[in-house]
Amino acid sequence: MPQMAPLWWEFLFIMTLMMFMIMCTIIYFNKKNSINVKIKKINKKSKMLKW
C-alpha cells in the first residue's frame, strides 16, 4: 500500500498539469481568435470608408 501512494500523487500532479496546460491553450486560442475578429472588423470598416 505505501508504494501505491506516490504513484497516485504523481498521477494527480500530472492530471492537474495537463488540465492547466489545456486551459492555457484554450484561453490563448480564444484570445487569438478574438484579436483576429477585431482585425477583420477593422478591415471591413476601412473598406467601407474607402468605398
How do you describe this structure in short?
This protein is mainly α and 51 residues long.
Percentage of residues assigned to helices:
over 70%
Secondary structure class reads mainly alpha
Largest sheet: none
Please trace the helix and strand order, writing H or E for each element. Answer: H
Arithmetic mean pLDDT: 82
Q: What is the rounded Rg?
A: 22 Å
Q: Show unreliable segments.
A: none
Please report which band the strand proportion falls in: under 5%, 5-15%, 15-25%, 25-35%, 35-45% or over 45%: under 5%
Task: Give the helix tally.
Answer: 1
- Taking the alpha carbons of the first and last residues, their distance comes to 75 Å
Protein name: ATP synthase F0 subunit 8
Transmembrane segments: 6-29
Keywords: Membrane, Mitochondrion, Transmembrane, Transmembrane helix
Plain-language structure description:
The chain is rod-shaped, with a radius of gyration of 22 Å. By secondary structure, the chain is mainly α. The mean pLDDT is 82.
